[in-house]
Amino acid sequence: MASSEVLIDAIDRIQQVVHRAIKGASTELLTYRPDADANSVAWLIWHLTRVQDDHVADAFGTQQVWTSGGWANRFALPFDDAATGYGQSSDDVAAVGVGADLLGGYHDAVHDRTVELLKTVTDDDLARVVDESWNPPVTLGVRLVSLIADDLQHVGQASYVRGLAERAGR
């Protein structure tokens, strides 16, 4: 199995769990927050997808699906199109009050673009430096593993929050 196939398998697993976390969920469930400063399922799925979109586009020198595919307009969130969720406030988290179809559609579009680009990756490509602002500089392989680890954490959190929301009767 080639490295690109392993990376695609990981990205596919994230997509599967995203869909389980949002399947059949009402907007009330998706926006449930266990306390006033907690993240909601909607925000977590939006955030992990924005980070994947941002990091993959940057690493491969392409446009983000968020803007090129019109998703920013469809979501109509009250923050800059460049926002990925990093460092956002509790009020920003509350602003992501969208439904499962929109979340799933955006995630699927980013997933498809990610897989399309990963299919072109060779083992030698993984050593290519994609970010020199770190010491040591970040390679494509490190960026992709970091992205996968972050997305897995957030989709696990979204699944957990969904369980809490269901127990709370949402």
Question: Can you offer a commentary on this structure?
Answer:
It is built from 8 helices and 2 strands; from the N terminus they run αααααααββα. The protein has a two-stranded antiparallel sheet. It has one domain: dinb family like domain (Four Helix Bundle (Hemerythrin (Met), subunit A)). The N and C termini lie far apart (43 Å). The protein is an all-alpha fold and 170 residues long.
Key descriptive features of the protein:
170 residues, single chain, Four Helix Bundle (Hemerythrin (Met), subunit A), 62% helix, two-stranded antiparallel ribbon, mainly alpha
CATH fold description = Four Helix Bundle (Hemerythrin (Met), subunit A)
Question: Which outline best applies?
Answer: globular
Biggest β-sheet description = 2 strands, antiparallel
C-alpha end-to-end distance: 43 Å
Sequence stretches where pLDDT stays below 50 over 5 or more residues: none
Number of helices: 8
CATH homology group: dinb family like domain
* Integer tally of domains: 1
- CATH C-level name: Mainly Alpha
Tell me the series of helices and strands, N- to C-terminal. Answer: HHHHHHHEEH
What's the short story on this structure?
The chain is mainly α. It is built from eight helices and two strands, in the order H-H-H-H-H-H-H-E-E-H. It has a single domain (3-167), classed as Four Helix Bundle (Hemerythrin (Met), subunit A).
